[in-house]
TrEMBL record:
Signal peptide: none annotated. It comes from Desulfoplanes formicivorans. Keywords: Riboflavin biosynthesis, Transferase. Belongs to the DMRL synthase family. 5-amino-6-(D-ribitylamino)uracil binds at F25, A59, F60, E61, A83, V84, I85, F116. Catalyzes the formation of 6,7-dimethyl-8-ribityllumazine by condensation of 5-amino-6-(D-ribitylamino)uracil with 3,4-dihydroxy-2-butanone 4-phosphate. This is the penultimate step in the biosynthesis of riboflavin. (2S)-2-hydroxy-3-oxobutyl phosphate binds at A88, T89, R130. Pathway: Cofactor biosynthesis; riboflavin biosynthesis; riboflavin from 2-hydroxy-3-oxobutyl phosphate and 5-amino-6-(D-ribitylamino)uracil: step 1/2. It catalyses: (2S)-2-hydroxy-3-oxobutyl phosphate + 5-amino-6-(D-ribitylamino)uracil = 6,7-dimethyl-8-(1-D-ribityl)lumazine + phosphate + 2 H2O + H(+). This is 6,7-dimethyl-8-ribityllumazine synthase.
Length: 156
């Protein structure tokens, strides 16, 4: 009898250590993402004692900090949270692109799962909608994705 092998991650955070990297820029939005991520980990069996929150200036600074955290070997997963909101100049594009590209690089270079919970929005309203209101909470989604990735990778 042939059968399909399926590998799936259980959403159980018990015993896992997470670092949350949170940008201070637009902190009134980012704090909602942090709250969502922490709540998700705790509701899924994680412990406050296993959570570390690292505050950094802005999304541009994320890749280097995430790289050092990942290389330390102390964390099973890293959750990057920020809010890049378009302004009047092309600055947005540079900050958002470097954050996304840099975080993806760190993830692949270190083999540590990293959740990308960085909002990249055209305006403040879109950011508010994604920080715990009508379009959900991207901090929760990033925490969930990080947890699922950790549990999947354990089985491969
Ligand atoms: N405009 C936003 C920034 N800009 C700041 C940069 O991330 C960086 O801190 C600065 O260029 C110094 O290196 N950061 C965000 O997280 N969100 C923004 O909307
Ligand atoms: C995404 C940003 O860096 C943004 O706050 C910059 O705004 P501006 O383009 O108006 O300087």
């Amino acid at each position: 009898m042939h059968h399909i092998t399926t590998i799936e991650g259980q959403l159980d955070a018990k015993g896992l250590k997470f670092a949350i990297v949170a940008a201070r820029f637009n902190d009134f939005i980012v704090d909602r993402l942090v709250g969502g991520a922490v709540d998700y980990i705790l509701r899924n069996g994680g412990s406050r004692d296993d959570l570390t929150i690292v505050r950094i200036p802005g999304a541009f600074e994320m890749p280097l900090v995430a790289k050092k955290l990942a290389a330390s070997g102390k964390y099973d997963g890293i959750i990057c949270l920020g809010a890049v909101i378009r302004g009047a100049t092309p600055h947005f594009d540079f900050v958002a692109a470097e954050a996304a590209k840099g975080i993806a690089h760190v993830c692949l270079d270190t083999n540590v799962p990293i959740g990308f919970g960085v909002l990249t929005t055209d305006n403040l309203e879109q950011a508010i909608e994604r920080a715990g209101s009508k379009a959900g909470n991207k901090g929760v989604e990033a925490a969930a994705a990080t947890l699922e990735s950790i549990r999947v990778l354990e089985q491969i």
